[in-house]
Amino acid sequence: xxxxxxxxxxxxxxxxxxxxxxxxxxAIAGVSRAxxxxxxxxxMAAYIGRTxxxxxxxxxxxxxxxxxxxxxxxxxxQIGATGVDAxxxxxxxxxxxxxxxxHLILEGLLGDGxxxxxxxxxxxxxxxxxxxxxxxxxxxxxxWFTAGxxxxxxxxxxxxxxxxxxGQQTALPPELDDQLRAVGLTHAVxxxxxxxxxxxxxxRSIFLGISKYLSAVFAIGMVALFxxxxxxxxxxxxxxxxxxxxxxxxxYGRSIHPVVLLLFTAAATALYQPSYVWGDxxxxxxxxxxxxxxxxxxxxxxxxxxxxxxxxxxNIIVETLSAQIATLPIIIYSFGxxxxxxxPANVLIVPFVPLAMLLVFVAGVVGLxxxxxxxxAGVPAEMLLSYMNWVVQYIAxxxxxxxxxxxxxxxxxxxxxxxxxxxxxxxxxxxxxxRVENP
Length: 439
What we know:
Distance between the termini: 29 Å
Structural class: alpha+beta
Shape: globular
Order of helices and strands: HHEEEEEEEEHHHHHHHHHHHEHHHHEHH
Number of strands: 10
Number of domains: 3
Number of helices: 19
Helix content: 55-70%
């Protein structure tokens, strides 16, 4: 923490030599933190291949498979009689009522891990579910409010609206979830920087004419509430940290270079959870998409439009295309498929997401306060969400909506080296000043 504080102070004052000292101190602290996390997970290795009981806490909202089974990300606290602290993936057959924050006792064959999961339990039997009172407050607030939304709006539109407003992708029917992936629109319904950007902009605008201080405090409060509701996934951790830094910088009238912001948030989130770096695909996709939006997109706009604003429509085109270019190599390498119609799908839907969030919020409030009027209040939101659902279904059903491609590690590195070279070339041609011109 002292290294982080020194780095922030050095960046604030422009003392580069202190920045280098803080960077080295932070690197040493990061390695030490990573080794500590590994050492706390190591005892689990002795149980791989054995049937065991695990005591754990549910870390994120469970997701549902096509057969109704639940995939659960848990933090194991005890395996057999041994205390551990390790990330574990479990597949739970049936329809057990499992929520984020629950304490579980699971039994099953412990298998090898993958990604950031130290181990897995492909067929986990639920021995006991313990729900602390009142449980995860964010989940309680979310479920209370989404009940009002469902009074006003029917499914699948309600699930789509809840995804926009709260980032709860697990509420989506599996078929709609697959269709959103096929058209490259998962980012709109996953708790991410996009949802948070809309909320922060709304929060700032409410009090900006009255007090900059109130505007900043309210916006930070909205960020904290949204993160509590969605949970600290890799993308949400990154988005929340960026939003918080951006609000502080804005309040004090300062500016920050986007590359510095990118590197700082990457280091901070990796220090918070070193396993992100070891193999969390969501963490890598979040940061590559972020780099596309804050680095590549401004360079493209500067190259084609100069000092003029390209306007809302072209802004969406350029930022969507930039995020896709930045994430494409990882997507091809990891999944072997590309959403061929992601650009038109984003153009047809993304501009209406802020309006959809507002209408869904109004419908939820009326659904809770005046249930008798809920169905009437939900009509505007349901109409807009029906349009969005139709667009997703139509585009996902087009021939060649997903193109299969294969990438080797060599091609993955070659792609990002080429992309870095392209950004440096555009920067030199346009002479773009990121600190001054980047919004």
